[in-house]
Design goal:
Distance between the termini: 32 Å
Structural class: alpha/beta
Order of helices and strands: HHHEEEEEHEEEEHEHEEEHHHEHHEHH
Shape: globular
Largest sheet: 5 strands, mixed
Oligomer: single chain
Number of helices: 13
Strand content: 15-25%
Radius of gyration: 22 Å
């Protein structure tokens, strides 16, 4: 289908303006024009369009420039325009969040539905979230899922997930959309954490490694679940890198061998005891972080960011790394890479799933993308308004 150049340019400029407002929180028309090198008339037309649609609102007068003159009016996103749900679904538990358009957290919840099939878990989680949504008089813009495994995020398909024992592709987007009329986004859980890291660092994080570790308490009740898991989100040039086969976050440690369904070659009893036995957790830390030495040396990251329960005790983890994985710390020092701990937010991947949608919402449309969920601004505005009627 031929591209409507005028419509594309309108959507592109509108996205650029909306993205800058999202990043800055509040900004004047003059500063938008200056930062984006757009004509003031172009910016004024876009702001008028967004104001009339309820996407943004005018706030207080900002401080005037040294030269004097009228004070500029600040423009901010209108959080009543829409919200997005983020779901991090694991075999043994879930985390769910609701974010406003500017990234403000409106609701969070963690819990477990027990060991039930993925489809049943998705159904239960979405139905529960929609019940929660009744207390918010805000249109839903998207449902966004964080899932462990190899995910084709462009098409919303889980290609493979060892934690969920999925060996055949599962079209999660189609499954949800058959029951609910909302755009659906799906991404690997560690990649979702990486999207959140980009956002939480003020959109300035260009090259980094996001590490997400998680204990699986249900492993004490069944042999089907391993006691600990980890995933890795790679950030390159300010965006999340998925690899040639959407598998860039999948990890095998240096002790792993072909035929092993787990990420590590450590004894299964060691992996099961990591949540309660620090000696077992030490072995896992050594095995995991020694495996990172070549990656960190080659990639030259700005930061390595650790998320999740296994990394909550920063002083202890640093001491273990110094004692059992000194080569990892040495590789970071050699490449001037900063090691950061951000382990207290259980909902990092759920928030990241929602933030990923906002990244797409405020990005210039990609002519080569085949993502069927993308809406132009006219379509998005109508979708939001329809929910309020």
């Amino acid at each position: 289908m031929p591209v409507n150049n005028n419509l594309f340019q309108k959507n592109a400029n509108t996205s650029l303006v909306a993205q800058l407002i999202w990043k800055k929180k509040c900004i004047s028309r003059v500063d938008i024009a200056r930062e984006l090198s757009l004509y003031r008339s172009t910016v004024s037309n876009i702001i008028t369009y967004l104001l009339n649609a309820g996407v943004v609102y005018e706030g207080e007068h900002m401080a005037s420039h040294v030269q004097g003159g009228r004070k500029a009016i600040e423009i901010s996103l209108n959080n009543n325009f829409g919200c997005v749900f983020g779901f991090d679904i694991q075999p043994s538990h879930y985390r769910a969040v609701l974010l406003a358009m500017d990234g403000t957290v409106l609701w969070t919840e963690t819990g477990s539905f027990g060991l039930i099939p993925l489809e049943q878990m998705v159904d239960t989680m979405v139905e529960h979230a929609l019940e929660v949504h009744h207390q918010f008089n805000i249109p839903i813009l998207a449902l966004s899922f964080s899932i462990p495994g190899i995910v084709d995020s462009e098409n919303g398909i889980i290609n493979y997930s060892e934690p969920f024992k999925l060996t055949e592709a599962f079209d999660l987007r189609a499954y949800v959309k058959a029951k609910h009329n909302y755009p659906v986004y799906v991404e690997n859980d560690a990649n979702c954490a990486a999207w959140m890291d980009i956002y939480s660092k003020g959109h300035a994080l260009e090259n980094a490694l996001s590490v997400v570790g998680d204990f699986h308490e249900e492993s004490k009740k069944t042999d089907e679940i391993i006691g600990i898991g980890t995933g890795f989100g790679i950030i390159i040039d300010g965006t999340v890198y998925r690899g040639a086969h959407n598998a860039s976050g999948e990890f095998c440690s240096i002790s792993w061998a072909p035929g092993n369904p787990n990420q590590s070659g450590l004894d299964i009893d060691v992996l099961r005891k990591t949540a309660d036995d620090k000696m077992c957790l030490e072995q896992w830390i050594e095995d995991t972080f020694r495996s990172f030495v070549p990656l960190c040396s080659v990639m030259d990251f700005e930061k390595v960011i650790l998320h999740g329960n296994p990394f909550k005790d920063e002083m202890w983890v640093r001491e273990v790394l110094q004692r059992r994985a000194a080569a990892f710390l040495g590789a970071l020092e050699k490449s001037h890479t900063e090691l950061l701990f951000d382990a207290n937010d259980e909902c990092i991947s759920a928030k990241g799933a929602a933030i990923m949608y906002l990244h797409y919402l405020f990005s210039v449309p990609d002519l080569e993308s085949s993502n069927s969920e993308w809406m132009g601004w006219d379509e998005l505005i109508e979708f939001s308004k329809a929910q309020m009627n």
